[in-house]
Design brief:
The protein is α+β, with helices and mostly antiparallel strands. The protein is elongated. 40% of the residues lie in helices and 23% in strands.
């Protein structure tokens, strides 16, 4: 069994036993490897975001939170290729790019057979021109959206004018390969779009805000006709 397959099998072994912990010795016996290799594999899983944890003391061992993991996903060749292409587009300027990378690692670890081979072959055929993006800005935007937190921005518009303002994030818009933060601008007292690669600095104010209606903020703008991406439509609960 190669290491990728073993990591996947290790997760499934812990999931089957959850919430009961398994000792390193038991896992080493199960997979016929050394305890040192098991320890190294468990550390790798932790680093890639898999919710495994060590429980110290008598009766302890390693366990996984089944509520925080997915059951095995069987992808077709086309589905694996589609995910590979989508993840390739998640460069440093893309929101949630860090999470996309760890998701890619988990998907690769879970795939086998033709789907895995197709994904790896396609990955070797995709290249991208690097973009210069500040991950701290991207992270600040992500957290502000998740926590409904006001942001203080330093922004340069299309005409090169620089400004500082406090905004209340409402959502994200993607168009022509660019990402925009849609927010209520306290300076303009209206909805505005801020291209992420034009934000020079972003810092949370620590102030909680009320959620804004994204569609209403887009009314009257060039993006008034924006629609939910087809691939995401099924993820949104009906109202």
């Amino acid at each position: 069994m190669n290491r990728t397959a073993r990591l996947y099998a290790l997760v499934e072994e812990l999931r089957a036993a959850a919430p009961r912990p398994l000792t390193v010795a038991a896992l080493a016996t199960r997979f016929e490897i050394s305890t040192r290799t098991v320890q190294r594999d468990l550390q790798t899983l932790m680093q890639t975001g898999v919710p495994v944890r060590s429980i110290p003391g008598r009766g302890g061992g390693w366990s996984i939170d089944p509520a925080m993991t997915l059951p095995p996903i069987h992808l077709t060749v086309d589905e694996a290729s589609a995910l590979t292409a989508a993840l390739a587009a998640a460069d440093a300027s893309t929101p949630y790019a860090g999470a996309a990378r760890t998701a890619a690692q988990k998907i690769v670890a879970s795939m086998a057979g033709p789907a895995s081979a197709a994904a790896r072959e396609l990955a070797a055929r995709i290249v991208t021109l690097p973009t210069h993006a500040d991950s701290a800005i991207r992270t600040a935007v992500e957290h502000a959206l998740a926590d409904d937190m006001a942001l203080r921005l330093s922004y340069t518009d299309a005409a090169g004018h620089e400004s500082n303002r406090v905004v209340e994030p409402a959502g994200l818009l993607t168009a022509d390969g660019r990402w925009y933060l849609i927010a209520w601008c306290r300076t303009r007292r209206a909805g505005r779009g801020f291209r992420l690669d034009r934000i020079a600095a972003a810092a949370p104010t620590g102030e909680q805000t009320q959620p804004h209606n994204l569609t209403e903020l887009l009314l009257g703008s060039a993006a008034a006709g924006a629609v939910r991406p087809t691939a995401l439509a099924s993820l949104t609960p009906s109202r």
